Amino acid sequence: MRLTVGIGARPATGVDELDALVRESLPGPGDLAEVTTVSTVDERAAVAGELAARHGWDVVTFPARRLAEVRVPSPSARVAAALGTGSVAEAAALLATPGPAVLLSPKRASGGATVAVAAAAPPVTVVGIGADGFTGLTDAARAAVDSADVVLGGRRQLELVPGLRHRGTVWPSPLVPALPRLLAGVHGRAVCVLASGDPMHYGIGSTLVRLLGARNVRVLTHPSSVSLACARLGWAVDDVSVVSAVGRSVDALRRVLHDGRRVLVLSSGAGTPAEVWKILEDSGFADSEVTILESLGGPDERIHHDPGAAGPLTVVAVACRGAAGVPLVPGLDDSTYDSDGQLTKREIRAVTLARLGPRPGELLWDVGAGSGSIAIEWLRVHPSCRAVAVEQSAERAGRIAGNAARLGVPGLSVVVGAAPAALDGLDPSDATPDAVFVGGGFTAPGVFDRCWAALRPGGRLVVNAVTVESERLVAELHAAHGGELTRIAVNRAAPVGGFLGWRPMLPVTQWVVSR
User: Fold this and answer.
1) Which residue, among 307, 229, 212, has the nearest Cα to 264 in the 3D structure?
2) Distance CA 289, CA 262 (A)
3) What letter does residue 209 receive in the DSSP assignment?
4) I need a labelling partner for 307 at 20 to 30 A (CA). Which of 96, 99, 197, 487 fits?
């Protein structure tokens, strides 16, 4: 296996420091001998040359604009501001590797340096296969399987193809972390991947495209279980909500429960139908019509209504009946949340979410999350939205997770700790938010600086200040960075003796600024 090392380094970084970081970053103890090339941005050619001379490696450098074109898992807004590219180490490692390339380990940082390691990988043909097995494949799909040197897939998919013998390799578990090295190990061979149904619908096809790029992945699709289920039920595919419980919490079903809606749940095993039944009962949808569709397209296909008799390969169809669905627009009733009082009230919450402006696929940091209402309602806007809730109280963090599951967004990432320190250990994919909301702890030293530095260019920061001290800091930062200041005062009607009067809530000073 030939490895390429990408490096990013400040000008003062010493070659010894960089050498040590490279050794730490290599996935295996014997991998140093496999390195052939070191790569970086043009401005860091000198230190790369010193490192390469020490080991006899080749050196390849690229202009920042070229590196900026490479899609990487963990871009940095700070690096982009300094060099004009969001990535140096990862982008350089991938770009200097001929053909399809994969990162073998996450980017590692130390002091003023970053290192990433890449290797060449083969182009891949992904074949969707159904319960009808090899006979149900098209001629092109059969030819792709027959001509492959290596066929990768789950045990069930591989067993559907006769005569694989030594060519078949079962996916390791967990799959995603092992995938880059697995692919690098079969570089130079014809590789076919077997996937269940449509590989691009909650399937391995999407993962491979993200890893290798679309032009290096050929997909030969098969009717998905969603299409087959809709065909059996007479439902329009474009009028159905789909929830996958495969590797995910089935609590996501709660978000799409609304009277009259049709939902398909992709099961993770025989127990999923019973979990769906319980969620329907808990959520006020016990009157829904539930159908279990098993082994769709196969010789043992079965359609029934008994969760206790469900097999492992099922789709659960729900025709929703109930009046308890939760609105998708921001500003849910305060009673929706389990809270100890640390909750952005619904009127302020609706305004705050409007200013944060969630868009599909965007990432929010909710700093000082309290009950998690801002992050939760951000996630409810669109299933592709992502959020990290940071809360220093472990008790409140547990409450946030419970609120998120109950409101159908179990994917909310909850970090226990005080900002800004709690933000330093985030997964690289969560390190560059599109929007930041600070509802608590804004006056703590370093909170604004850390959030502002992490925010992607063009991203939005919203701060709600209710104390004199936080208002003073907001005013100072507004003078330095601009943006908009708004004073929000809300009064709610409440009994005053035998009459109604207006009870004011604490006024909020809201600062909104784009980076």
Assistant:
1) 229
2) 10
3) H
4) 197
From the number of C-beta atoms within 10 Å of its C-beta (0-12, 13-18, 19+), residue 230 rates as: buried
Q: How many residues does the chain have?
A: 515
Beta-bridge partner residues of 113:
9, 110
Largest CA distance in the chain: 88
Beta pairing, strands 499-504 & 101-110: unpaired
> Among 503, 189, 472, 235, which residue's Cα sits nearest to residue 345?
503
For helices 175-184 and 204-212, angle between their N-to-C axes, nearest 10 degrees:
50
User: Residues near 170 by Cβ (< 8 Å), separated by ≥ 6?
Assistant: 153, 154, 155, 158
- pLDDT tens-digit profile of 34-62? 999 999 999 889 999 999 999 999 999 99
**233 and 160 Cβ atoms separated by less than 8 Å:** no
At what angle are helices 15-25 and 45-55 packed, to 10 degrees?
70
Which of 315, 316, 312 is closest to 155 using CA atoms?
A: 312
Spatial contact of 409 and 386, defined as CB atoms under 8 Å apart: no
For residue 322, what are its two tokens?
């109930």
Which residue is it, tokens 């009950």?
371
At 312, which amino acid appears? P
Distance of alpha carbon 357 from alpha carbon 426, whole angstroms: 23
59-100 tens-digit pLDDT: 999 999 999 999 888 777 778 777 888 899 999 999 999 989
Q: What are phi and psi of 126, to 5 degrees?
A: -105, 125
Tokens of 477: 């930062």
In the chain, what percentage of residues exceed pLDDT 90? Answer: 84
- Count Cβ neighbours within 10 Å for each residue of 35-68 and write b for 16 or more, e otherwise: bebbbbbebbeebbbbbbeeeebebbbbebeebb
